[in-house]
Specification:
By secondary structure, the protein is α+β, with helices and mostly antiparallel strands. It has four helices and nine strands; from the N terminus they run ααββββαββββαβ.
């Protein structure tokens, strides 16, 4: 009798699994979904930028005039431990580019935010300023040292895209998009 009951339990479990799988399949088929939807949402960084510009001990940089294909994806400002500003983007080719600024010692800060990139000893002129060229296993970077702050444009994007971002950086509080424009579409 125990053997018959054991077979019924296994049979009931298999039937239950079939019913659950069928219901899940029907739900999947009839619930609308977009397989081509971009899972990465754009962020509006204007509030964080205004806050960082008031709080930071240096002129906070953000892009102005990037082409429409750039998408802001992350933003943060940490007032402690070097007053770090971070603004992340996807470029028009969906490669990552970040603007990083801090008062932390550049010797440790640059390798940290560029994922172990190293100074090549070369420079690249961008908008009349000589940026150091750093190369790494994952990210490359352009680095600019100014009074009390290090600015790093880094990411998986090619160096030309990093230079495009560096050229668009402005520290003027009036430079970002107006209230009617989003940062990704400002021109």
């Amino acid at each position: 009798m125990a053997s018959k009951r054991g077979k019924q339990t296994v049979r009931d479990m298999i039937l239950s699994m079939l019913v659950i799988t069928a219901v899940a399949g029907v739900v999947y088929v009839f619930i609308p979904h977009d397989d081509k939807a971009d899972p990465i949402k754009a962020v509006d960084y204007r509030v964080e930028l205004a806050t960082a510009r008031r709080a930071a001990p240096y002129p906070v940089a953000a892009p102005d005039g990037l082409s429409k294909g750039w998408k802001p994806t992350s933003v943060s400002y940490e007032g402690q431990n070097g007053a770090g500003w971070h603004l992340g983007f996807l470029d028009p080719d969906q490669r990552y580019v970040a603007v990083e600024q801090s008062t932390a010692p550049a010797k440790k800060y640059v390798p940290q935010v560029s994922r172990d990139a190293e100074d090549t000893g070369r420079t690249r002129e961008v908008s009349g300023r000589a940026w150091e060229v750093w190369e790494g296993p994952k990210y490359d970077a352009l680095v600019l040292h100014a009074e009390g702050v290090t600015t790093v444009v880094t990411g998986s994007a090619p160096t030309d895209r990093l230079a495009e971002m560096a050229a668009a950086l402005k520290t003027d509080p009036a430079a970002p998009a107006t209230a009617s424009e989003t940062p990704a579409t400002a021109s």
